[in-house]
Amino acid sequence: MSDLNWQDLSAQVVALLQQSRQRVLTQMQRALTIDEKTSRKDLVTNVDKGNEQFLIQGIRQLDPQAQVLGEEGFGDHVTSTTGRLWIVDPIDGTMNFVKQRDNFAMMIGIYQDGVGQLGFIYDVMKDVLYRGGPQLGGVWANEMQLTAPADLALSDGLIGMSSPLVIHDVAHMQAIVHASAGMRIYGSAGIEMINVMVGKTLGYISHLKPWDFAAGQILLNTLGVQMSTIDGQPLDMLSSNLVLVATKQAQRDILQIEEDDVSL
Ligand code: 2AM
Ligand code: CA
Ligand code: CA
Ligand code: CA
User: Fold this and answer.
1) Cα distance between residue 244 and residue 222, in whole Å
2) Which residues form a coiled coil (predicted)?
């Protein structure tokens, strides 16, 4: 579809996400139906499922030819990144959604033949929608354009992580924390990526699925922040990855720790 107007598409996705936010806020006033997926720490609610259905229905109207990959399984069975691919996380940070009613996000990433085009991360309770990518030539938080975060070294900033990695000291996490100015854990990949975009943290490390990193990869790359596997390799868009988000300098520092195989 060479006649696609990305500016218009972006505005339509913003409208869809705003509608979706209103629906979620209404549903939050009623009791949630909560189920366990793989464990008691991996939850899904009626709102995750309903919102994915709502978003995918909207996406089908905007881009009928595209493939859609959604966390809760209401999209397509995607086995290739050829053509246009939308990747959707309807509620990112479901545990926060259930326990805090705060600190969760909606995320959409749009790829063309495996290359990121537009990304959206919506901090629902703060009502700040981050949108951007190569097709918009920048990243905006609502109407404010973001500037690239400072290229800090690992020792000069805070790093976000997911708790299982730290608890089990996967891939030298404790050495990385030790070398940084400190660790923070927010419980939502989307919120963590926002924190890196605005310079509150210099990076984030977590074991993530495509819907957890698809939108963030586009937005962060547009701001000059690196996203790779913990070994510095490109991410596989169709499977789990141990994801390293970091400023250029911090990425070098962390890859060096991995290479040196240091322990505390
Ligand atoms: P989710 O809430 O959309 O499932 C929590 O540490 C962060 O990691 C959230 O962004 C969460 O996304 C993501 N995550 C990825 N895999 C997970 C899993 N198996 N269990 C819980 N959270 C997971
Ligand atoms: Ca989930
Ligand atoms: Ca997620
Ligand atoms: Ca989710």
Assistant:
1) 16
2) none
